[in-house]
Automatic annotation (TrEMBL):
Keyword annotations of the record: Glycoprotein, Secreted
Top-rank lineage group of the source organism: Eukaryota
Organism: Casuarius casuarius (Southern cassowary)
Family annotation (InterPro entries): CD74_antigen, MHC-II_Gamma/Thyroglobulin, MHC_II-assoc_invar/CLIP_MHC-bd, MHC_II-assoc_invar_chain, MHC_II-assoc_invariant_trimer, MHCII_invariant_trimer_sf
Source species taxonomy: Eukaryota, Metazoa, Chordata, Craniata, Vertebrata
Entry protein name: HG2A protein
């Protein structure tokens, strides 16, 4: 009688384990089936974010078709990015001629989650706020870029007999 009870318990336990394994397999199957829909929803979300950004930009002074050749980077244009569809089948660029808006548009195409801080104070306060919000390595990289930009601007516009103001240490 005890051997029959042990066999029954072992059979019941085996059936329970088999049902649990089958349940896990079914769950994995359904999750795998849903992954395609999740990726479609992600692409749709990115497209909607770009459309929202384009609606917020002021209208362009020039038609976008004339601007496109000047602002489109060929490697980026060849890349398959989720963009808002337009009437001619190609994606529209930013709706503004401002360099800031065009660069922001290109950066958001590469990474729609990228955030840009609101900088509404004067230059020095904005730079101080940026320095506090950036990591040390990012700030050093930014300082290096500012130095190169300054050299570029100086090369573009040579100064005529002006006094050189030394930078403050601090």
């Amino acid at each position: 009688r005890s051997t029959f009870g042990r066999k029954a318990a072992f059979s019941a336990l085996s059936i329970l384990v088999a049902l649990l394994i089958a349940g896990q397999a079914v769950t994995v199957y359904f999750v795998y089936q849903q992954s395609g829909q999740i990726s479609k929803l992600t692409k749709t979300s990115q497209t909607l974010q770009l459309e929202s950004l384009q609606r917020k930009l002021p209208p362009s002074a020039k038609p976008a078709s004339k601007m496109r050749m000047a602002v489109v980077n060929v490697p980026l244009a060849m890349k398959d990015l989720p963009l808002a569809p337009s009437s001619d089948g190609m994606s529209m660029g930013p709706l503004s001629n401002k360099t800031e808006d065009q660069v922001k548009h290109l950066l958001l195409q590469a990474d729609p989650k990228k955030m840009f801080p609101e900088l509404k104070d004067n230059l020095m306060d904005n730079l101080k706020r940026l320095k506090k919000s950036m990591t040390d390595s990012d700030w050093k990289s930014f300082e290096s870029w500012m130095h190169k930009w300054l050299l570029f601007e100086l090369a573009k516009n040579p100064q005529k007999d002006e006094k050189v103001i030394p930078a403050e240490k601090g």
